[in-house]
Write a structure and sequence with these properties.
With 134 residues, this protein is of the alpha+beta class. The chain has 4 helices and 5 strands, in the order H-H-E-E-E-E-E-H-H. It has a 5-stranded antiparallel beta sheet with strand order 4-3-2-1-5.
Length: 134
């Protein structure tokens, strides 16, 4: 289950934050708004898409490289997150939600009752995801 404020949970479930979170412990490249980029091992992603790297290389516009043992990037400075070619985007999103649902199922809380409108929207989303697989 994703831990954070209700706003962070909303972002996790309604944006591609779950895809970026699935890239934790992998080497990725991130383009920044000032036309520089960072390469390194993604250690942590929070609910606002702030990123923490280890063993990162920051490369500025002029091509100068700076090495950092730990580096933190605020979400507002991000332009693009490059997804590695060997990563299945839909597979990673599904696995991330399976992990979240598995942890949710471990709880002994009462099930949450959903309205008909929410159930219908969920069914529509699932049909859309199923059509993307084909």
């Amino acid at each position: 289950m994703f831990i954070g404020t209700s706003r962070e949970k909303f972002f996790y479930h309604n944006t591609l934050l779950c895809l970026v979170k699935s890239l934790q412990d992998k080497n990725i490249t991130v383009d920044l708004r000032n036309d520089s980029y960072v390469c390194g091992q993604l250690i942590q992603v929070d609910g606002y898409m702030n990123l923490s790297f280890s063993k990162a290389v920051y490369c500025d516009r002029r091509g100068n490289e700076y090495y950092f043992e730990n580096l933190f990037l605020q979400a507002r400075n991000l332009r693009y997150v490059h997804i590695p070619e060997n990563v299945s985007i839909l597979g990673n999103i599904k696995n991330e939600f399976k992990k979240a649902n598995k942890k949710d199922n471990d709880k002994d809380d009462k099930p949450i009752l959903k309205s008909r409108k929410a159930k219908k929207a969920l069914q529509q989303h699932m049909k859309t995801v199923a059509s993307l697989e084909n």
